[in-house]
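Our platform keeps sequence and structure together, in a single record for each protein. Such a record has a labelled line for the sequence and another for the backbone structure tokens. This encoding replaces a full spatial description with a residue-level series of whole-number codes. Below, we set out a record of this kind in full and without editing:
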Amino acid sequence: MGRSAKQGLIFGCALVLLGAGSATAQEPGADLIAAAKREGTVVYYTDLIVDQIVRPLTDAFEKKYGIKVDYARSDSQDTILKLLGEHKAGSMRADVFGLTSGLKALIDAGAVRKFDAVGAAAIPAEFKDAGKYWVSSNFYVMTPAVNTNLVPEADRPKTYEDLLAPRWNDKMVWKPNDTSGGPGFIGNVLRTMGDDKGMDYLRKLSGQRIRSFQGSARAVLDQVIAGEYPLVLQIFNHHAALSAKKGAPSQWVKMEPAMVQMTLVSLPVGSPHPKAGELFLEFMLSKEGQTLFQKADYFPTRSDVSPSMPELAPSTGGFKANFISPDDIARDYEKWAKIYNELFR
């Protein structure tokens, strides 16, 4: 069994085994709650979708603790630049933040502080940092997706090799940056096939003239749903499934191994409401908070809260996946981006 297959199997088995038990975690301490209430406000930077999860999460927190939440939504790279700027200026505004990539730059800059969260006891080891800089609130599964009106079922790709068929020349699209776009797809190919076979495959794929669309992964999928492109190579599979539930011509492609990555939640150095930030993080990890992720059709990381659409997750959907850790992204992302620029620009 190859490295990627082993990782996918280990990841799937770990979630099944951990999910089988009933995880228990202590509630936040009374001292933390009292200190957070005295601060009265928490500022939350996030890349999550506001209507889908941010608003339900913050509304529930405000109702439970009486602490006001101000949130700002932007993509991970914009959040990183904002946090770096605030840290350098000595005027940090955020109290807690979440992003999917780029955390190492903030850690290296000294902008992130370590923490101990009691709620992390119910989070599997794969979803929290041994160094205590981050914990994951939810994870994502990255796959291709098709417009079902434009791509008959018989023509939908099942393997990576199928993407090299002549019918897909000039018919595929992805975003040009981040792990939810071309670089992430490239990283998953290299993890799956190894450098030599992976690069040979990517050179062949570059001949397919893949289109580039500047925007979020959700925006690229919307272009496919609108009929601008038949197939997108790298999106969040739950986005395609949710759109299909609403009647859109959208279908995610179970191409193995899929790529799994996480939303990382951390606490910044020098925040104005540090205790409120800690309490909000604890709420995100609590069974109550994780159930809100479940109801919003995100994949919770807590082992006693299962996905609302189990067929979309590797462990419950019966498909292989490569688990891409923050360390993998920090170490290899520049390599993936360089390959993207050399072969696909």
In short: Residues 1-25 have pLDDT under 50 and may be disordered.
